[in-house]
Amino acid sequence: HPHSHPRHPRARTMLPLLLLLLATAHGLEKLDYKPQLASPDLGGLKTISTFVLEQPRCHFKSYPNADIWLVVATSKAVPNFNNSVGPGTPERAFQRFPTNASAYMTLNTTFLNYPCTKPSGEITVLRVGSETSCAKDMARPTCNGPLPGPGPYRVKFLALEGSEPVAETYWSDAITLKTAQQPSSIPTTGSRHGPGMIALTTILSILFAILLAGLVAMLVFWGSDACGGSSTFTKPEAVSVRRYNTHHVYDQPAARL
Ligand SMILES: *[C@@H]1O[C@H](CO)[C@@H](O)[C@H](O)[C@H]1NC(C)=O
Ligand SMILES: *[C@@H]1O[C@H](CO)[C@@H](O)[C@H](O)[C@H]1NC(C)=O
Ligand SMILES: *[C@@H]1O[C@H](CO)[C@@H](O)[C@H](O)[C@H]1NC(C)=O
């Protein structure tokens, strides 16, 4: 008791001071939210060029006038990310990502679109990479275009008031997309075995064709010998009957050769 009493007032003055220091040092609030991929029961969660995120609902309620941007960065760009580089600049242009811009900013919206109450029945997700029309249009650097590769990418939401960053979420975990290169690894091994496989297949099909031709020829000879008609093909009993004449059949082609 004698210890706890003097501590309380001090803690009360220290905490806001500390927060103020932090706020002025960073210039923006770190929101306790990490962007999440949408629940996997939504079909086609990740494709080779898109992924689906949960909306950051309610988290920006203190910033009703801010523009909330989605930042998509390569994993490598995250440690040195500069929040002051504005959306729409060449360093944040989708068309230059990821070679000449390490991140891009897209899906500009406000808190109005990320309200706290979830309207029932409405799908409250964001599909990143869904806009194909502006993907090559340098005049639209904030395009939500198809992602240029499997990644890995990391995303966060950044709220700007004017050009001033005021709040941000944490970065998401690394997001790796499905890769179109995986099936192409089969052709590379396939090309190694390719010619051999093709030769083998060709030989086998030729052999099979010869065998089939021989069989047909045999059946024709057989048929003409045993019954003298094409009706042999329709009667299964006729086949078993003809088995007794095998010695005769072997004689036939030999005689012809
Ligand atoms: C971040 O970007 C702003 C605007 O381009 C620039 O003035 C500032 O120097 C950059 N900060 C760092 C640490 O690179
Ligand atoms: C990056 O910049 C170089 C040189 O300016 C250019 O040749 C290249 O096409 C650019 N790449 C992208 C993805 O914009
Ligand atoms: C972002 O969106 C807001 C409203 O939707 C708009 O007023 C603003 O001009 C947009 N900013 C940019 C850079 O596109």
Overall pLDDT level:
78
Which H/E pattern describes the elements?
Answer: HEEEEEEEHHH
* H/I helix tally: 4
Strand neighbour order, sheet with most strands: 1-7-6-3-4
InterPro entries: Uroplakin-3
Protein name: UPK3L protein
Transmembrane segments: 197-222
Signal peptide: 1-27
Compact overview of the structure:
InterPro entries: Uroplakin-3 (IPR024831). The chain is α+β, with helices and mostly antiparallel strands and 257 residues long. Helices cover 34% and strands 15% of the residues.
Protein architecture, described:
The protein is of the alpha+beta class. The protein has helices spanning 4-26, 181-226, 236-242, 246-256; strands spanning 29-30, 51-54, 67-74, 103-109, 125-128, 153-161, 164-168. It has a domain at 12-179: Immunoglobulin-like (Sandwich), CATH 2.60.40.10. Strands 1-7-6-3-4 form a 5-stranded mixed sheet, with no helix packed on it. Strands 2-5 form a two-stranded antiparallel sheet. Strand 6 and strand 7 (164-168) form a beta hairpin. The protein binds 2-acetamido-2-deoxy-beta-D-glucopyranose (NAG) (3 copies). The chain crosses the membrane at residues 197-222.
